[in-house]
Amino acid sequence: MNKRKYGEIDCDNFDKNVFRSFTTPEESDQWGNEIYGEWSKQYRSAVQSLSSLESGISYSINKDPLAYYCGYYYKKINKYLRNLSLDFGENLDLDEVKSASDILQFLLSFTPRLPENIIVYKIVSDDFINLLIEHNKSNPEEPFSEKGLLSTSLLIEGCTNGQTNDCGLENNLLKIFVPKGIHGIYIRSIEGLKRREYEFLMRPTLFLRPIAFPYWDDKRVNRIYEYELISLDTFDI
């Protein structure tokens, strides 16, 4: 039944025990500040310097790229990166969206590399889950390519509290196993961006491969989809 619905999944050749899981906000913040604190200070200093040059900056993205992304604009940026059609109003600032995606990808390529394997979480829509499932059924040997910036949470509570049906009627939860070596940033390590999601942001392009058949979590009322993250970042260290 599972294979018919989800396709072939190799559940036996992946060691989940070598991945760190975070359990408290304090643990997440301490870890994030230790690894990304210095980079975040340099970023905030650069942003403050740019604010004095506001008249020469074309788009607000250039003033504070990560704050820009963490607001409403993440939807526009990821639509653009995934080659999806922008709504009419979004098309009006297409040049700004293009600028945002370029700057963020460049910026994230200079963040510290992940020093250890970790587990992160992400709520996704029914449409996205269907894309993952159909891809695996059609191409079981080829991981799914995620072209957008990948916003995740170090804590499972960070992405399940307060969710609405906009994220899918079943509250589909990706449990993602991220290998060390990947470029990323813990958003809460940046002054002024102390978001409750405990967000860990990674640059595109990343690949997702299923490592277990989905299962239901009665406690959290989520269907859990476990995926291995694959990135070219890990091959050049």
Extended strand count: 9
Question: How much strand?
Answer: 15-25%
Q: Between the first and last Cα atoms, what is the distance in angstroms?
A: 41 Å
Mean pLDDT: 84
The gross shape turns out to be globular
Uncertain runs are: 164-169
- The structure class reads alpha+beta
- CATH domain class: Alpha Beta
What count of structural domains?
1
Whole-angstrom Rg: 18 Å
Q: Please provide the ordered H/E string of secondary-structure elements.
A: HHHHHEHEEHEEEEEE
User: How would you characterize the largest beta sheet?
Assistant: 6 strands, mixed
| Count of runs of 4 or more consecutive helical residues | 7
Q: Helix content range of the residues, please?
A: 25-40%
